[in-house]
Amino acid sequence: MPEGPSIVIAKEEMTVFIGKKVVEATGNAKIDMDRIEGKVLADVKSWGKHLLLCFDDFTVRIHFLLFGSYLVNEEKSATIRLGLVFKSGHINFYAAAVKVLEGDADLHYDWSADVMSDEWDPSKAIKKIADHKEELICDVLLDQDIFSGVGNIIKNEVLFRTRVNPNSIVGKIPSKKIKEIVEQARIYSFDFLKWKKEYQLKKQWLVHTKKECAQCGEPLVKEYTGKKKRRSFFCTTCQKLYV
């Protein structure tokens, strides 16, 4: 599943079509294609893992789920979920969830929850975390209402950076450490963006999918943690367990 930084890259690739008219809309998405044809793409935005194609009175939301993908000015031999053709090029989406949101995108999204947004508000994130004191930090970091855009890679790397075991109970983690986790969720997301653009992302992973701790050299634990049962990679020596 693409994480927030990958959606930002997709958004940036598609900004060349802003102000351009949709000549043709195709695909097997269950939306009104006729409504899109002839409309001018007013903006392209991202919120967490959602890509938003904004028109004057509605927004087309793209969620890539586990296996979704897109191509700009290219094609592949797969069923198109949504294809938008402009005079200057085209965009194809594959295996993604497509939904039309009525009205302006601002009516549907809290931009202060998006870790990559200019409107990101870490103080709000800290307040929201306080309402989940009995949950595990590995689950809270993946809560899109708190950390929109954070996925499993970012979760693992942030917890390693902050030296917190993913099985830690939120209410037992010191407030100073919670603040550090919130800060690193944003910092690492932008590091992720930079490295992915440079095709260096996997080379920069310190813990995700790794077998030995980059800090102490001890074997890492791979475990499906929390209620979400997502893969966690962590060091029981360097990452403290708060319970």
From TrEMBL:
All residue ranges annotated as the Formamidopyrimidine-DNA glycosylase catalytic domain in the record: 2-89
Domain of life: Bacteria
Catalytic activity: Hydrolysis of DNA containing ring-opened 7-methylguanine residues, releasing 2,6-diamino-4-hydroxy-5-(N-methyl)formamidopyrimidine
The entry's keywords: DNA damage, DNA repair, DNA-binding, Endonuclease, Glycosidase, Hydrolase, Lyase, Metal-binding, Multifunctional enzyme, Nuclease, Zinc, Zinc-finger
Domain called FPG-type: residue spans: 206-240
Molecular function terms, GO-annotated: damaged DNA binding; DNA-(apurinic or apyrimidinic site) endonuclease activity; lyase activity; oxidized purine nucleobase lesion DNA N-glycosylase activity; zinc ion binding
InterPro entries with a match to the protein in the record: FPG_cat, FPG_N, H2TH_FPG, Ribosomal_uS13-like_H2TH, Znf_DNA_glyclase/AP_lyase
The keyword Zinc-finger is annotated on this UniProt entry: yes
Similarity section: Belongs to the FPG family.
Protein name according to UniProt: Endonuclease-8
Species this chain originates from: Paenimyroides ummariense
